[in-house]
Amino acid sequence: MKREKRRIDRYYRSNNNVYFACHYHVVWTPKYRRKVLVNGVEKRLEQMARAVCQEHQAYIVALGILPDHVHLLVSVDPQFGIHQLIKLIKGRSSFLLRKEYPQLRAMPSLWTNSYFVSTVGRPTMNVVKHSIEKQKDE
To answer: Structural domain boundaries of the chain?
Structure first.
């Protein structure tokens, strides 16, 4: 019983007002999907993403940086929001990476304006839907 409790506590978090489990899979790309996240740029980008997440109490579950896109699996406080977090990561990293790596200045901007985001979690939507519908019968 205690082992299960610890596993759940790492998945669910609290900000003193809300008890939550908001996990997002986010993907974004450099402008024109150029393969510029190489030769140390990817390591520096990882440091910046981790710093922004730490500053805003977001927890990185997984981070994958390929030459032409970034995958991020992150837990974010719903009152802060995934859009705000991605905006901060992309904004800071664009500014600093273009400052630190002159080859990136040739691009009009480092990132595209868009990104993909999907919620990830348990239980699945079907389980929650079934549970809600079942409550009517009780």
So the answer is: 17-121
Q: pLDDT tens digits, residue range 55-64? A: 999 999 999 9
The full DSSP string for 87-132 is HHHHHHHHHHHHHH-GGGGGSS-SB-S--EEEEE-SS-HHHHHHHH
Phi/psi region, residue 39 (left: phi>0; alpha: psi -120 to 50; beta: rest), is left
The domain made up of 17-121 has a fold known as Alpha-Beta Plaits (3.30.70)
Task: Check: pTM over 0.90? Answer yes or no.
Answer: no
Whether the CB-CB separation of 65 and 53 falls below 8 Å is answered with no
